[in-house]
Amino acid sequence: MRATQRRSGYHNNGTESLRQVTPSSKLSQTGAISTKGQVALAAWPFLNRLTNVNFRSALIFALTVCSSPVWAQGEKSINELRDALVALAPGNVDPHEAELLSVTAHTMSRRLAREYGVHGDPAIHNFLINIGAKKRGICADYTRDIGSRLKEFHFKTLVLHWGSAYAKESDENNALVVTARNQPFQDGIVLDGWRRGGRLFWCLVKNDPEYEVGRRGLLGHLGGYLRTGITAWKEDFQETAWLQDNQSPVAEPKRRR
Fold this sequence. Notes:
Blueprint: H1 14-21, H2 35-66, H3 69-88, H4 95-116, H5 122-130, H6 139-151, E1 158-165, E2 173-180, E3 189-192, E4 201-204, H7 218-221, E5 233-235, H8 237-244
Antiparallel strand pairs: 1-2, 1-5, 2-3, 3-4
Helix pairs in contact: 3-4, 4-6
C-alpha cells in the first residue's frame, strides 16, 4: 500500500492535478488559486515525497519486525515443544493436544509479560513489585495464569503439574511441568514464562541447567557449577491438585519469585 492516491487508468493534465490537490478553501470567489494556495501547491511535491519516505520507512520497519529472528525463533520453539511433548510418550500423547498446549503456553507467556508491564530483566521487575511500583509478574503469577488457561482444555493425554525450585528461599522459582499420563514428575517438561521475561523457556526437568543442585554456593557465584544431574525442581502437590481439578482458582496467588 502506498501513501499517495491510487492512479486511475488515464493521465491527468496539470489543471486536473490542481483540482485534485487544491482544497476549496484555498480558492477565491472567481475560482483562482489564492497566494496561500500557491504556496501550499509549491510545497506539495516535497510533502508528497516526505510522506512516501515516511510510509516506506514504517513499512520496512514493520516487515523487519514481522520477519525478525524473534518471531522465527518463537515459531521454532512452538514446533519443537510440540514435538518434545509428543516424545514424552510416543503413540500415547495426542499430537493435537501437544500443539494446542505449546501454542497456548507460548502466546500466553508473551501476552502476560505485556499485561504485567515487564521490560527487561524479570528480577528487576520483581524488585519493582516488592517496592510497590508493579503489581504482578512474579514467577507464580505466570504459572497460575498460564495454568488457568491450560487447565480449561481438559487434556486427556497430557498432565499439568506445579513445579517449585528452592521453595521458600530467596531465589525460589515456580513453573509448570507437563508430563504424559501416568508419567513421573521428574520425567516432565518445565514451562517457565518468568525466566526470560515472557519469552517461554522450556526443557526437560532433568536437563534444566539453571536449576540443578550444585549450581548454588561459592562455585555458582564464581560463574561455574558442578554438574550433579540432580534437579532442584520438586512438585508442589497442593498447587498440582488445583491444576488437575476442574475448579476455577479461588486462592490468592503465591507471592513468589
